[in-house]
Amino acid sequence: MSYNDIDTNITNDHNMLKQSVRDFSMEVLRPAALELDQMSPEQVVEKNSLFHDCMRKMYELGYHTAMLPAEVGGLGLDPLGQHIFFEEVGCASAGFAVAIAVAAFGPFFTALTGNAELIGKYVIPFTECKDASNFSCWAITEPNHGSDNLAVGTSHFQNPDIAQQVRAVKKNDQWILNGQKSAWVSCGPVATNAVVFVNIDPLMGMAGGGICVVDLTQPGVSKGKPLDKIGQRELPQGELYFDDAVVPEEMMFFKQDSYEIMTGSTLAHANAIMGAIFTGVARSAYELSLQHSLERCQGGKLLCQHQSVQKSLFGMFRKVEAARSLSRKVLNFHLTTAIPDKKYSIASKVTCTNSAFEVANDASQLFGGYGLSKEYPIEKIFRDARAGLIEDGSNDILEIVGGNQIVKEEE
Ligand SMILES: Cc1cc2nc3c(=O)[nH]c(=O)nc-3n(C[C@H](O)[C@H](O)[C@H](O)COP(=O)(O)OP(=O)(O)OC[C@H]3O[C@@H](n4cnc5c(N)ncnc54)[C@H](O)[C@@H]3O)c2cc1C
Fold first, then answer.
1. CB neighbours of 330 closer than 8 A, spacing ≥ 6?
2. CATH number of the domain that 245 lies in?
3. Among 112, 308, 346, 382, which residue carries the largest CB count within 10 Å?
4. How many A from CA of 164 to the centre of ligand 1?
């Protein structure tokens, strides 16, 4: 059974990309994610674990460069290609989709500077890396700052009484970092570098921030225990501690003057990718439900022959289609516009993660008792989808941020 695509912009190249990413993701990533789901977080991050094996295989295929343009050695996918890529990986495993997206965070930010020397030094070696030894992550959330770190554009962001906990202080030609990022940093336990959102000027509140790439292998950095959590357990997460960690001036890419704009732009990018990933999560729950309904007999007929089951399947299908349409349109807009507009990306993230959770919930119902059992992947997809409502900004706060922007634009 293969899920149809009615997008008339799809070319032969897109179809080939879709098929190859789908085959690899379903044959390698889905079974691995189910196995990793049953392991302890410590086992997941162990050297030579199944997680590392899958990441190495993705690097060999160049998946770590899916967000990067061809000029710096990336796959050079167009917006529709990037959507197809993240939908397919997300369909097999939300956790691996997030892992491979954050793996590119450092090189992605470095490429944004347009600085040829830095690109040659940091981005090209990353795109050429095939053994997953060069691995980035995004560290913004802190023990005392989760949602508010993402509340760009609200009055809260300029409140001088509230500032990020990780402080960067300039000493000669380098920055010294102190403080902690929370246990939610995706791939924190395995990453070799991180894009860290810090505070430079506390008097400006959250807006007085900076964005830098930090080498996590230096003595001034330590890591916490990998986090034990409900969903996306194949995705390792954990704290980062900075104790006089050093960042060369050239790696402090953005400072107070551009911090708020760049944080909004990062949120817009991350949320647009999340829309694609969770379209895949919703589709996986729908596809499994349809398959199950064609196989299981109840009340003297197959589940799919009951009218109420057909109605339920159609509701799921409708939500997948709506999620796909919106998230494709938004990702295309985000990747082709000069000035990112975060309200569209937020709309995509909130809609697609809500849809994924609703479809996974309906799917669990359709599976009956089996929906609760580890015998089928649906219970894991349900837990993965639940995490999506909080990941990359909890949906209720993102809605406040988006609503605040809409009102401000009219004032
Ligand atoms: C699977 C997963 C992956 C993640 N990956 C990363 C990552 O790679 N890097 C990273 O840095 N972070 C990451 N995060 C962290 C994520 O972005 C935060 O969890 C999220 O921003 C929410 O922050 P919090 O958990 O501190 O919740 P809080 O900020 O404590 O919010 C909890 C709840 O309190 C309420 N609330 C909070 N503030 C307000 C307000 N002002 N007004 C009204 N109600 C409010 C809301 O209901 C909110 O949902 C990840 C999270 C998950 C679940």
1. 272, 275, 344, 345, 347, 348
2. 2.40.110.10
3. 346
4. 14
Torsion on CA atoms 132, 136, 142, 145, rounded to nearest 10: -130
Report the alpha-carbon distance of residue 117 to residue 111 in Å, rounded: 10
- Residue 399, domain extent: 259-410
In order along its 411 residues, the chain shows pLDDT tens digits of 678 999 999 999 999 999 999 999 999 999 999 999 999 999 999 999 999 999 999 999 999 999 999 999 999 999 999 999 999 999 999 999 999 999 999 999 999 999 999 999 999 999 999 999 999 999 999 999 998 899 888 888 889 899 999 999 999 999 999 999 999 999 999 999 999 999 999 999 999 999 999 999 999 999 999 999 999 999 999 999 999 999 999 999 999 999 999 999 999 999 999 999 999 999 999 999 999 999 999 999 999 999 999 999 999 999 999 999 999 999 999 999 988 999 999 999 999 999 999 999 999 999 999 999 999 999 999 999 999 999 999 999 999 999 999 999 998
Kindly report the backbone phi and psi dihedral angles of residue 168, in degrees, each rounded to the nearest multiple of 5, phi listed first.
-115, 125
CATH number at residue 357: 1.20.140.10
Q: Does 263 share its domain with 406?
A: yes
Q: Do 273 and 367 share a domain, yes or no?
A: yes
| End-of-domain residue from the set 76, 108, 128 | 128
> What's the one-letter identity of residue 374?
K
Of 184, 150, 181, 187, which is closest to residue 64 (Cα–Cα)?
187
CA 374 – CA 362 distance, rounded (Å):
17
| Residues 68 and 207 grouped into a single domain | no
DSSP secondary structure of 382-401: HHHHHHHTTTTS-HHHHHHH
Q: Does any ligand 1 atom lie closer than 6 A to the CB of residue 323?
A: no
Ligand 1 binding pocket includes 396 (Cβ within 6 Å):
yes
Same domain, 20 and 147: no
Give the HSE-up count for residue 140: Cα atoms under 13 Å, Cβ half-sphere.
Answer: 24
Measured from the Cα of 188, ligand 1's closest atom is 8
107 Cα–ligand 1 center, Å: 25
Q: Which residues contact 221 (CB under 8 A, 6 or more apart)?
A: 214, 215, 240, 241, 242, 243, 245
